[in-house]
């Protein structure tokens, strides 16, 4: 079968902004899969782990239908992430995915992708890490991702998962970016639940990857090899090695910054603000945003207006946008689905010294349960939760 | 086509270092060089920071002469001594993370096959005994099980040389090295047997004692990987520092080890053998 052969290449601008869309009621896994179908992916490398498996086995079916040129099940996550790094070096469009413990297992490789300047999309279906073992949705793993140099987008729902995945390939391969893009969602709540997703026709696909116009050329023996991999060993202790590593890492973070306009363009800004004039603002990412939307509705019924700032992009982090959006706020809460409060730390670091406001150290749920709306209300309007 | 990557605009050629001009004009690219031609062509690897008398550096130099098409070859390595020479060579070298050689090589080979279906692009992993048999073991074995079409070369110096002489899985039983204070407690890992079990199409064991055999073995291994399936070459490269071999006795040691326990061995699948015969019949150097 030649699924891809029956598709028409369109520009990202047409795909994202102009193509007519129709609504489907599908799971998050299916939404990601539909994005991959339209993304002109060359190779996907999979390794099973709950709750990620469903998407990547569907991608395997796409390969069977001719939408991808290569696909296989790797020996483990380190093998999958290493191999996808090899494939990305050759200039083909690459996809891989994982969840919780699998992500942690492959972290050495994940943290080296940005330094090797490897465009690819990495789907993260969040799942609890640490012990005791749990397959439930808890997104502590994203706290580790924030330090790796990857672009990290956090989808709220099935629609986001479709849009961010498709946009991820385009952002990743922009010349001034040339970095991997991780697209995360909370497992089960999004991956295994259905929601309405508006999608352009499956007969459309993005243009293929053009490795010749990226910041660091691919290794194909058709153009001069200048990747860091070919440079003389830099691990010895001398000032050349310090300088090389420092310069290269600074450039990775500069590339993250240069991704901002593209993230803003294709994700419709890095944040979304509801009720910007409210004195109490909820700052959230992922499916905590959906729970917060319900809290806003309930609070309004009680006569209280709460604000909501949805963080779409964790890296680059929307620092200026957050400061602007919080300029009227007196009280901020940060609902999260993990015990460490990584988003809370980001918010505190961003707003420190910028405004006279109180930032609550929560609320948080962990271990995989969803956050009750009542809990958000208890933190947002103490004593007025209206039970 | 790939030779273009070496060439510079004609007007700039005279500003390039003599070494570079030599590589463009007399390199082994796009033609078959022989060991007996040494001195008449610019080698892919000449200067390197390896220790005086290093057998591994000598082997790598010979192995690079064996590549059938260096202009279309990508090398993959990992932490260890070998990569210090390989990263100085005049062909692309990928140095990724610990344990990842055969995963990275898998991705490279498959990606190149997608982009260049009509042009053979060879991928050769060259890493140490620690990189192949210890930390990289899983990826090596699985690349063989999957029948990935690239060559794996183990530079077996029977020790972690670059980190200062610790025991590896390929160290001989009873040997006293760092991290084996009472001598190694178990046998050298039988990677050749494991390669055979995994169905590797071409397997060879050798030492650098016979240079022309190094060149022809690498050539066969790369040709088989190109058309038939995975190939594995395991070479004793010693470590004259950790095993206290005088620099001028390194090849004597190689000859002695070859005689005692590291004799030349080839295990060739039926299909690989037939293919090499056909290459030889066409005038290539398959045999």
Q: What's the arrangement of secondary structure elements?
A:
The complex is a heterodimer of chains A (387) and B (287).
Chain A: E1 8-9, H1 12-18, E2 21-27, H2 28-37, E3 43-46, H3 53-64, E4 70-73, H4 77-89, E5 94-98, H5 100-105, H6 107-110, E6 121-126, H7 141-145, E7 151-154, H8 158-172, E8 181-186, E9 194-200, E10 204-205, H9 239-258, H10 260-266, E11 271-274, E12 280-284, H11 287-301, E13 306-311, E14 313-315, H12 319-325, E15 331-333, H13 342-351, E16 358-359, H14 373-380
Parallel strand pairs in A: 1-10, 3-4, 3-5, 5-6, 6-8, 7-8, 12-13, 12-15, 15-16
Antiparallel strand pairs in A: 2-9, 7-14, 11-13
Helix pairs in contact in A: 2-3, 2-8, 11-14
Chain B: H1 18-26, H2 55-66, E1 73-77, H3 82-86, E2 93-95, H4 101-115, E3 122-128, H5 129-134, H6 137-145, E4 151-156, H7 191-197, E5 202-206, H8 211-227, E6 231-236, H9 250-260, E7 265-268, H10 270-281
Parallel strand pairs in B: 1-2, 1-3, 3-4, 4-6, 5-6
Antiparallel strand pairs in B: 5-7
Helix pairs in contact in B: 2-8, 4-6
Greatest contact between two chains: A-B, 42 and 43 residues
Q: What is the 3D form of chain B? A: globular
List how many beta strands of chain A DSSP finds: 16
Instruction: State the end-to-end distance of chain B.
Output: 28 Å
Rg of chain A, alpha carbons: 21 Å
- Catalogue the unreliable spans of chain A: none
**Domains of chain B (count):** 1
Order of helices and strands of chain A: EHEHEHEHEHHEHEHEEEHHEEHEEHEHEH
**Percentage of β-strand residues of chain A:** 15-25%
CATH architecture verdict of chain B: 3-Layer(aba) Sandwich
CATH topology of the largest domain in chain A: Rossmann fold
- What is the fourth-level CATH superfamily of chain B? Thiamin diphosphate (ThDP)-binding fold, Pyr/PP domains
**What oligomeric state do these chains adopt?**
heterodimer
Strand order of the largest sheet of chain A: 4-3-5-6-8-7-14
CATH C-level name of the largest domain in chain A: Alpha Beta
The CATH topology of chain B is given as Rossmann fold
Overall outline of chain A: globular
């Amino acid at each position: 079968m030649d699924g891809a052969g029956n598709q028409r290449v369109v520009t990202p601008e047409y795909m994202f902004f102009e193509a007519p869309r129709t609504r489907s009621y599908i799971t998050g896994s299916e939404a990601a899969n539909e994005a991959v179908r339209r993304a002109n992916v060359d190779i996907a490398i999979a390794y099973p782990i709950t709750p990620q498996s469903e998407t990547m086995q569907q991608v395997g079916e796409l390969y069977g239908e001719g939408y991808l040129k290569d696909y296989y099940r790797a020996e483990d996550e380190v093998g999958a992430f290493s191999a996808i790094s090899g494939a990305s070096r050759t200039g083909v469009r690459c996809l891989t995915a994982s969840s919780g413990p699998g992500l942690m297992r492959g972290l050495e490789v994940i943290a080296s992708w940005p330094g090797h300047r490897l465009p690819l999309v990495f789907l993260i279906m969040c799942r609890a890490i640490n012990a005791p073992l749990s397959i439930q949705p808890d997104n502590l793993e994203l706290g580790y991702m924030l330090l790796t140099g990857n672009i990290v987008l956090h989808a709220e729902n099935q629609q986001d998962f479709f849009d961010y995945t498709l946009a991820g390939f385009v952002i990743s391969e922009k010349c001034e970016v040339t970095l991997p893009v991780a697209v995360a969602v909370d497992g089960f709540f999004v991956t295994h639940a259905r929601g309405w997703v508006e999608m352009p026709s499956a007969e459309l696909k993005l243009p293929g990857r053009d490795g010749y116009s990226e910041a660091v050329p691919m290794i194909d023996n058709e153009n001069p090899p200048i990747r860091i991999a070919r440079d003389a060993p830099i691990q010895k202790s001398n000032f050349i090695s310090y300088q090389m590593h420092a310069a290269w890492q600074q450039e990775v973070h500069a590339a993250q910054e240069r991704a901002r306009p593209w993230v803003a363009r294709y994700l419709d800004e890095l944040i979304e603000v509801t009720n910007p004039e409210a004195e109490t603002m909820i700052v959230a990412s992922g499916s905590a945003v959906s729970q917060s939307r319900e809290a806003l509705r309930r609070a309004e019924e009680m006569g209280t207006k709460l604000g909501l700032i949805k963080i779409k992009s964790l890296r680059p982090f929307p620092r200026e946008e957050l400061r602007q959006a919080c300029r009227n706020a007196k009280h901020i809460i940060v609902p999260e689905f993990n015990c460490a409060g990584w988003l809370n730390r980001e918010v505190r670091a961003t707003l420190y010294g910028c405004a006279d406001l109180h930032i609550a150290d929560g609320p948080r749920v962990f271990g995989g349960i969803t956050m009750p709306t009542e809990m958000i209300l208890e933190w947002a309007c103490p004593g007025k939760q209206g039970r | 086509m790939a030779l273009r990557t070496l060439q510079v605009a004609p007007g700039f050629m005279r500003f390039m270092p003599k070494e570079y001009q030599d590589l463009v004009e007399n390199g082994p690219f796009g033609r078959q060089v022989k060991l007996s031609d040494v001195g008449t062509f610019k080698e892919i690897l000449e200067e390197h920071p390896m220790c005086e008398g290093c057998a591994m550096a000598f082997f790598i130099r010979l192995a690079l002469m064996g590549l059938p098409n260096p202009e279309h070859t990508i090398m993959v390595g990992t932490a260890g001594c070998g990569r210090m020479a390989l990263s100085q060579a005049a062909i692309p070298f990928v140095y990724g993370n610990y344990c990842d050689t055969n995963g990275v090589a898998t991705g490279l080979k498959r990606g190149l096959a997608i982009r260049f279906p009509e042009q053979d692009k060879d991928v050769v992993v060259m890493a140490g005994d620690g990189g192949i048999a210890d930390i990289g073991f899983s990826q090596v074995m699985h690349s063989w099980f999957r029948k990935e079409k690239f060559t794996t070369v183990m530079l077996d110096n029977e020790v972690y040389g670059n980190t200062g002489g610790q025991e590896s899985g390929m160290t001989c039983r009873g040997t006293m090295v760092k991290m084996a204070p009472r001598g190694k407690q178990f046998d050298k890992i039988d990677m050749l047997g494991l390669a055979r079990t995994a169905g590797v199409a071409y397997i060879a064991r050798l030492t650098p004692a016979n240079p022309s055999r190094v060149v022809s073995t690498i050539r066969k291994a790369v040709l088989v990987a190109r058309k038939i399936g995975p190939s594995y070459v395991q070479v004793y490269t010693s470590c004259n520092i950790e095993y206290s071999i005088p620099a001028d006795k390194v090849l004597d040691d190689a000859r002695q080890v070859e005689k005692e326990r590291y004799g030349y061995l080839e295990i060739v699948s039926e299909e690989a053998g037939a293919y090499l015969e056909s290459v030889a019949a066409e005038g290539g150097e398959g045999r």
